[in-house]
Amino acid sequence: MIDLHSHILFGLDDGAPDMATSLEMARMAVADGITHMACTPHVVPGSYPNSSATILPAMQALQAMLDAQQIPLKLYCGADVHIAPNLVERLANGDIPTLNGSRYLLLEPLHEVLSPKLEDLAARLLEAGFVPIITHPERLLWAERHFDVIRRLADVGCPLQITAGAVVGGFGLPARRLAEKILKEGRASVVASDAHGATWRRPVMSKAYRAVADQAGEDEAERLFRSRPAAILADAEPGLVMPARRAGMRPQSGHGAARRFIDRMFGNG
Fold it and tell me: What is the pLDDT of residue 244?
């Protein structure tokens, strides 16, 4: 599996507090079947002032430690980006990293209230050539009341990232029901761990994979946990990332191309 959302880098945000925790998280992820992981610390003005200058060296240092200890987890650079007025400009000049240098980024909306500028920001990002992946919509406290906004974001081309823990009830019944609704409507693009530690919000996704496979089928689980995340890291066209959700449409039309991306990432091609 490929995990596009994690807070495994220590000391940068509210994720891993130290190297020992980062290493334990990595071992836990590998044991659960995760082979590739994006390191995505929060970028929050005034709270977590991260940038490419802090995230990339931390990722490289952790990768070197994983390699030295023979922990087979491949890391990628990214960020969990919060709404900010200069976000487009910071992405354009490389101050904030996208996922593996691609057009895709994790965009975390406000949790408590719906920002009136969210759809406008998404439109500006798309117009600038970036593709914002909306993180954990099922956990946003306003999402159920304003589900039309979630639908519109997905329909204009913003992939939705569901949290693995929410799928299996780890964030409560409301989040689980909303995750199931998004999956049932065929609007979810990827599932990720959003891991923050080794004892809580852990980097595990296999249980969620089985739940999604039971609910939506093995092929869709493969797309949500492997082929679409691989396509994102490979900077594939959005058609390989956005789900074909309308009734009667063929399953992901670019699945073969995404499969080739996976083969290259795993050294199989």
Answer: 74
